[in-house]
Amino acid sequence: MKREIGIGILGLGTVGTGIARLLTENQSLIAKRLGATLTIKRAADLDIERDRGVRFADGVLTTEPFDVIKDPNIDIILELIGGKEIALELINAAIESGKHVVTANKALLAEKGIEIFQKAAAANVNIAFEPSVGGCMPIVKTLRESLAGNRIQSISGILNGTCNYILTKITEERSTFADALAEAQAHGYAEADPGLDVDGLDTAHKLAIISALAYGMELNFSDIYVEGISGITPMDIEFAEQCGYSIKLLAITKYDEHEDTVEVRIHPTMIPDANPLSKVDGTLNAVTISGDAVGDMMLYGHGAGMMPTASAVLSDIVDIARSILSGGGMRVPMLSFQMANIRKIAVRPIDEISTHYYFRFSALDSPGVLSKISGILGDHGISIKSVHQIERELDGAVPIFMLTHSAREAEVKSALDKISALDVITDEPVLIRIEENKN
Questions:
Q1: Strands (E), 118-260
Q2: Domain coordinates of the chain in residue numbers?
Q3: What are the residue numbers of the active site?
């Protein structure tokens, strides 16, 4: 029986260094659980001189990633370089060499995943990707294994720690978005160019993977509706709190079994304080899953960081190593469903969804303003749940807040276009969708 599994690491950045630490410091513990030793045979990085606080054996470090892939003593390749073109080339080379791959590359999987998984299945090698979604939270394992007997009905999640940190700061300190972002950058939670996070694209990559696992559908990144958090103001946060809501950047996917369609959308969302996601603050992530057998369940934890992500990488390594040791081949389908059963499922355009809404209007303080606004909403079949107007003037206008009952997005957009054209409206209306516990 094989007693040593060879590991090759591509990329010794934050996560690569973390997994090297775990494999070194916890080697004895892992061996007791696995029944074999996990050994780093080669590790590639552009900089192999920097002290990372990890001791590597002589000859392990190299600047040439393809030397790692070609090494016959390596069973599992860890692709931790990131990016798309070179990562895709390296993963394809690893598959062609008959090596299993663990990757945290959510962007690559969301956009090129189907062809990667098809190629891996044909070669009878595994592509494991737990660290690509939710850091240390076992979302992939939960959907592929723990909930294998469930029809997944919906998933909602906070999947970006940068956005959650910024929204928490705005909530707790009434900071502006710009100030909260600057603080996130100062703490290292946000990149110098934060667009991938605050514009919602990082979350969209993760939601594409999650929805594929949940429904057996092809990855659908290009079909996801994405809206970022840069327009959220302390005023919106304050009003939400007064009405018993919190505002989070929420990833939402719902399956309509009757119509065989899926909603996949990401946007700032008001959620009731009774929803446990409303209590997830700072850089933490969480996801709620609804299945026909289990009902509602929630996963919660660190979505990023050296050691939490390294923990997820190691869980994939151990899963693959156990398959190697048992001679079991591809024990669990990579995308939860057998490849032959992965199919296209139509994604509902955002204009066709129905939900509840929050509106904020900036209007001149003159008679008849409310009747004009409510008249247009009524003409579009939008029922108002509550209206609040405060006396505070902002740039010569007063804010008007409205909450609606469930309405169709297309009608909402049409109504807001007509309202924004009114001569009494001084700024573009603000829209935030609301996810009630039951729509």
A1: 127-128, 152-158, 225-226, 245-256
A2: 4-137+306-340, 139-303, 351-434
A3: 206
